[in-house]
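Example protein was shown:

_____
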Amino acid sequence: MVKYLHGFNSQEQQRLIDQAGFLAPLIYPTVDFSGCKKLLEIGSGVGAQTRVLLGLFPQLQITSVDFSSAQLDKAKENLKEFESRITFVNQDAERLQLNDKFDSAFICWALEHISNPLAVLQQVRSHLLPGSKIHITEVFNSTFYCNPKSPSMDHYYQKYNEQQLRFGGNPDVGSQLGNLLSQAGFSEISLLHNGFHLDQSNPGELKRFIDFWKILMKSGAGGLLEAGLVTQKDIDQMENDLDRILADENAVFFYQFVQAKATV
């Protein structure tokens, strides 16, 4: 069975849907598939990002690829009203075998979980028509910063990222997107840093994102407990640290992800 940091239970499937809506205002202002008709989505999961794409670009037909049949089954359920516009494919993205060519591609929060992201991008490029565009959004977890200092949060975050590495992923893959796209043969590569920098000048947004971060961190808790990397006390103390940040008059909460776009 493929190992996935966040697991495949129904709670996690709902988290992905909620996360897509929560982060959409940050991700999609720079994503442009106008003029495109056939999009290849890699790591589509439960269809959370797919739904956003379908809404923003009503002309798109989307082929959604994921290695998990359980996730695709949930995606079919979630996107039933769009079934005429989506083809679901259960394949390993490192070894794509599609009988079609596309004029666009999209990857969001997927390469972080893949052991050979270069192979994925090479496979994607081989299925794209000349002039096609690709948009990628990925994590850069080393950018996370908070004030006041939070030892329990830091400890848990270290173990969270360690688990990602143990599973063959890369919690900083966003930092390598330019290199990966270049090595895969893409051109016109551009990179953008996005994310959040929050403090007590906007306490409502600070609370919203800290609440989001708690849910994100706890999505990996089951696997971390099972692996013996953390204890329940570690989880509780991590949450307490986040509450302490929220209450501090000098609170700072900062994280950057990376977005890349390129053409064939």
